[in-house]
Amino acid sequence: MQKNTLYIITIGIIILGAVSYFAFNLKKSDNKSEYVAIIPIATHSNGMDFISSSACIECHQQIVEDHHRTAHFNSFQPASKNTIKGSFEEGKNTLRLNDDVTFKFIEKNTGFYQEPVIKDQDVPFYSAKMNIVVGSGTKGQSYLMWNNNNLFQLQASYFTPTNSWINSPGAPDQLAPARPVLERCLECHTTYAQNISGNKNGNQFHRENLVYGIDCQRCHGPVKEHVKYHKQNPYDKIAKHIIKYSSLSRQQRLDACALCHSGLRTETTERAFSFMTGDTLKKFSFPDYDESSLEELDVHGNQYGLLKASKCFTKSITLDCTTCHDPHKKERGNFTTFNQKCMSCHSTMEKPINCSGDKDEIRKMSNNCIQCHMPLVKSKTMKIQIPENGEVSVDVRTHLIGIYNQKVN
Ligand code: HEC
Ligand code: HEC
Ligand code: HEC
Ligand code: HEC
Ligand code: HEC
Ligand code: HEC
Ligand code: HEC
């Protein structure tokens, strides 16, 4: 009898221990949201606060993890060994600008530098620190330098097609002063920057009130209130205090991408970063080229203009950028997914697809629709002159979906 009681007591203690352990942990995870403070990291000129996207992980973990791998997220980063694609290795760390000037790229304890050295001189002409990297490196990168609060673009860039340091596209082949970086440049490459120059052509920015990369809040707006609300109301599964894409018109959805993907634009408003998803883009800026002339649209940076001219767009009422792109995922090279997107419409249409191209060739390419209908086209603007190679330009996927007669490559 006594033995049994002992048994029961022991088991009782074990169960109690296990229950309180789980209860404690449950409580801990229940209260997890209290541990991530909602501290604003920057404030929009409209008064709304940005918070760190790490605060989204708690409720949108998969999206955050996927998004961190995208070109958007990596388009504007602090300079580091990991983010700078150009090489600092001996033998690969120079760029000959002309007969007299050679750039050297140096790694020091204090950071990474561009140093032009003039022939027969021992000390470099200047030593410029690379503070910020613009570009995920898919096609290239450009480097920015802080001088107090003034932001400048440095002369040497990196070009992915040649995997080498280059003189920035458009720069003269002699030493040129660093170019001031204007807010419009940052508007397309990062989430938020505050211009403190007093006018739009100044290059002074608040160095702390800056959100790197094209992050969640670039497309969804500053969301401090959303996070605050859902932390306080964990059982409300209906999104609050957030712009809803699903309630936007087709044009509003397109405009949210066209802000940065419709080529260079002329602004009608003073403030960069004032456009927010849901707004009508033409109230903020208009294209500074003839929209109706396809010749003028470059494949680089103008996906909107080209798509708009395609039959898939004009003859359907739903097609927008997100029909084919999941803005949270890195999808480059994922042809199977893209084929499915084409087929999502073309397999449901009365008219069966009739690609009279060489049937064997089509089969060999496992029906890679875009190879033939959205071919790679050389950019007219993203190109450089290289002494050994002549002109080298980047290939960009055209968004003018159509029938091309050119030989498939
Ligand atoms: C405490 C939980 C919580 C946090 C933290 C949170 N969200 Fe949400 N969010 C929700 C809930 C709940 C929904 C509604 C269900 C859903 O769509 O997943 C939602 C929905 C959304 C939607 C979809 C809106 C729609 O219906 O179109 C967006 C966009 C969004 N959140 C963005 C963010 C961003 C950006 C962050 C981080 C800065 C964030 N959320 C942080 C709980 C949270
Ligand atoms: C704030 C400006 C901005 C907005 C808004 C924006 N993009 Fe981008 N997008 C960029 C920039 C800049 C790049 C190039 C990033 C890089 O490689 O550094 C890019 C790259 C891309 C790429 C190529 C990704 C890759 O793997 O190389 C796709 C696809 C894309 N954007 C689609 C979209 C879609 C769809 C939307 C709307 C939902 C959108 N973008 C909204 C600026 C923007
Ligand atoms: C109107 C929006 C816009 C402006 C302004 C803009 N860019 Fe871009 N930029 C883009 C888009 C969109 C892409 C990529 C998509 C493409 O190639 O079509 C891109 C690509 C790049 C790339 C190549 C990125 C990569 O990884 O392939 C670099 C580098 C770059 N831009 C630097 C700059 C710099 C520096 C400035 C300002 C001095 C600037 N851009 C101004 C929209 C813009
Ligand atoms: C380039 C713009 C862009 C960026 C950056 C972006 N989103 Fe979105 N997001 C969208 C669009 C567009 C939709 C609507 C997609 C649709 O309707 O097909 C969306 C939908 C959502 C939704 C609701 C639908 C779903 O997929 O669950 C959530 C939640 C969300 N985004 C959260 C985030 C979070 C968190 C981040 C940052 C890690 C983020 N987004 C970054 C453009 C963006
Ligand atoms: C009909 C499908 C479709 C639509 C709609 C579409 N895209 Fe794309 N997009 C693609 C495909 C396919 C690629 C090539 C992806 C690859 O190379 O892996 C691509 C590539 C891109 C790239 C990278 C270009 C390059 O070569 O570096 C950008 C940027 C982009 N899309 C932006 C947009 C924007 C912005 C919109 C809306 C205006 C849009 N796309 C609409 C299918 C589409
Ligand atoms: C939202 C639905 C939709 C999607 C997605 C779509 N298309 Fe289309 N596409 C159409 C419609 C509608 C037409 C016009 C058909 C007609 O002329 O009756 C069309 C026409 C075409 C044409 C003929 C163009 C011409 O100039 O004659 C080609 C080629 C084509 N699509 C290829 C594609 C490819 C490749 C993709 C995927 C990258 C794609 N489409 C995605 C709806 C779509
Ligand atoms: C090897 C190149 C090639 C591939 C791959 C290819 N097509 Fe085509 N496609 C063509 C050619 C060439 C035509 C023009 C046919 C003609 O009019 O003579 C065409 C015509 C079309 C048309 C318009 C003509 C019609 O019958 O309506 C559509 C739509 C189309 N293709 C969709 C697709 C889709 C979707 C895929 C992927 C599943 C695809 N194509 C793959 C070469 C190709």
What does this structure look like?
With 409 residues, the protein is α+β, with helices and mostly antiparallel strands. Among the domains are: 2-30; 74-192, no CATH class. It is built from 13 helices and 19 strands. Strands 3, 8, 9, 10, 11, 12 and 13 form a 7-stranded antiparallel β-sheet that branches. A 4-stranded antiparallel β-sheet has the order 4-5-6-7, with no helix packed on it. A two-stranded antiparallel sheet has the order 1-2. The chain is globular, with a radius of gyration of 27 Å. InterPro entries: Cyt_c-552/4, Multihaem_cyt_sf, Multiheme_Cytochr_ET.
Supply the number of helical segments. Answer: 13
Shape: globular
Radius of gyration: 27 Å
Give the structural class: alpha+beta
Protein name: Multiheme c-type cytochrome
Organism: Aquimarina rubra
Domain Cytochrome c-552/4: 182-221
Transmembrane segments: 6-24
Question: How is this structure best summarized?
Answer:
Helix content is 28%, strand content 22%.
Summarize the helices and strands and which ones pair or pack.
Blueprint lengths: L1 H29 L1 H4 L4 E4 L5 E3 L5 H11 L8 E3 L15 E3 L4 E8 L2 E8 L9 E2 L2 E3 L5 E8 L2 E4 L2 E4 L4 E4 L11 E2 L2 H7 L2 E4 L9 E7 L4 H5 L3 H9 L17 H12 L3 E3 L17 E3 L15 H6 L2 H4 L6 H4 L10 H12 L12 H6 L4 H5 L2 E11 L3 E8 L12
Antiparallel strand pairs: 1-2, 3-8, 4-5, 5-6, 6-7, 8-9, 9-10, 9-11, 10-13, 11-12, 14-15, 16-17, 18-19
The site of one heme C has 22 residues, from helix 4, helix 5, helix 7 and helix 10.
